[in-house]
UniProtKB/TrEMBL annotation:
One of its GO terms (cellular component) is bacterial-type flagellum basal body, rod. The gene is flgC. This is Flagellar basal-body rod protein FlgC. InterPro entries: Flag_bb_rod_N, Flg_bb/hook_C_dom, FlgC. It is found in: Bacterial flagellum basal body. It comes from Mesorhizobium alhagi CCNWXJ12-2. The basal body constitutes a major portion of the flagellar organelle and consists of four rings (L,P,S, and M) mounted on a central rod. The rod consists of about 26 subunits of FlgG in the distal portion, and FlgB, FlgC and FlgF are thought to build up the proximal portion of the rod with about 6 subunits each.
Amino acid sequence: MDPLSTALKVAASGLGAQSERLRVVSENLANAQSTGDAPGAEPYRRKTITFAAELDRASGGSLVDVTAINRDPSAFPVEYSPGHEAANENGYVMMPNVNVLIEMADMTEANRSYEANLQVIKQARSLISMTIDLMRSQ
């Protein structure tokens, strides 16, 4: 496989991984206030994503792959809200372990990585097109 095709394949795997990461972050943000529906019920638990490098034997390139989507085991913060439907006998409600600032930082990083991979694809396509044009002119 030629180097430009390998670059396209590597960047495409990066696009897929960052797209999945953005989906997980979006889900976390959407559920940042999702509490349980009964007293003592657990609220939404933050999801995390794990990546791994995977060697593509055909091209020799190192691709990225999503290996797992797990749940964050950290403790749930509690808030005093005695009128809430999920409040325990002391009036405390377990809130999701989602930190909006962390999720926004993850989203920004994933978005930038996605854009960088997109630029690699655009550049590789441009180089392929220029190579074809050079071959035609000879």
